[in-house]
């Protein structure tokens, strides 16, 4: 765009506004009615959706953490050891597996998980900290 005066340059919103609105409309492409066609409505709905998406990412992490702990606890109960003792025994043996790995082993590899519980129990017995059920 060529402007003959500075006032016209200041008043013109130019391509920036087009691309900014286009980005919002693209995020609202799957909505129906005015939610997708009317910018003033669209921007409110899209911002609310982005807030929900942000909260959802945090909630998903919390949900997965509780799911992993539930699986590990269930696996530990099968082998007569508490979750706390299990983690303590693994830490004393320098076995550094995260929750996800332990939960996968508890759910899909029961023999491997049993070996880990046996190692943890043995270490706690050797250190005199056996508090098993």
From TrEMBL:
<dbReference type="GO" id="GO:0003735">
    <property type="term" value="F:structural constituent of ribosome"/>
</dbReference>
<dbReference type="Pfam" id="PF00453">
    <property type="entry name" value="Ribosomal_L20"/>
</dbReference>
<dbReference type="GO" id="GO:1990904">
    <property type="term" value="C:ribonucleoprotein complex"/>
</dbReference>
<dbReference type="GO" id="GO:0019843">
    <property type="term" value="F:rRNA binding"/>
</dbReference>
<dbReference type="InterPro" id="IPR005813">
    <property type="entry name" value="Ribosomal_bL20"/>
</dbReference>
<keyword id="KW-0689">Ribosomal protein</keyword>
<comment type="similarity">
    <text>Belongs to the bacterial ribosomal protein bL20 family.</text>
</comment>
<dbReference type="InterPro" id="IPR035566">
    <property type="entry name" value="Ribosomal_protein_bL20_C"/>
</dbReference>
<dbReference type="GO" id="GO:0006412">
    <property type="term" value="P:translation"/>
</dbReference>
<protein>
    <recommendedName>
        <fullName>Large ribosomal subunit protein bL20m</fullName>
    </recommendedName>
</protein>
<dbReference type="GO" id="GO:0005840">
    <property type="term" value="C:ribosome"/>
</dbReference>
<keyword id="KW-0687">Ribonucleoprotein</keyword>
């Amino acid at each position: 765009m060529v402007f003959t005066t500075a006032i016209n340059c200041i008043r013109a919103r130019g391509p920036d506004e087009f691309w900014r609105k286009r980005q919002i409309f693209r995020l609202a492409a799957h909505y129906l009615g005015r939610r997708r066609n009317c910018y003033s409505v669209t921007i409110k709905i899209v911002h609310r959706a982005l807030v929900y998406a942000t909260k959802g990412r945090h909630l998903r992490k919390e949900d997965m953490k509780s799911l992993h702990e539930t699986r590990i606890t269930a696996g530990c109960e099968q082998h007569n050891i508490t979750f706390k003792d299990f983690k303590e025994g693994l830490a004393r043996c320098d076995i550094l597996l995260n929750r996800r790995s332990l939960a996968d082993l508890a759910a899909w590899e029961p023999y491997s998980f049993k070996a880990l519980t046996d190692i943890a129990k043995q270490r706690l017995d050797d250190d005199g900290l056996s508090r098993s059920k």
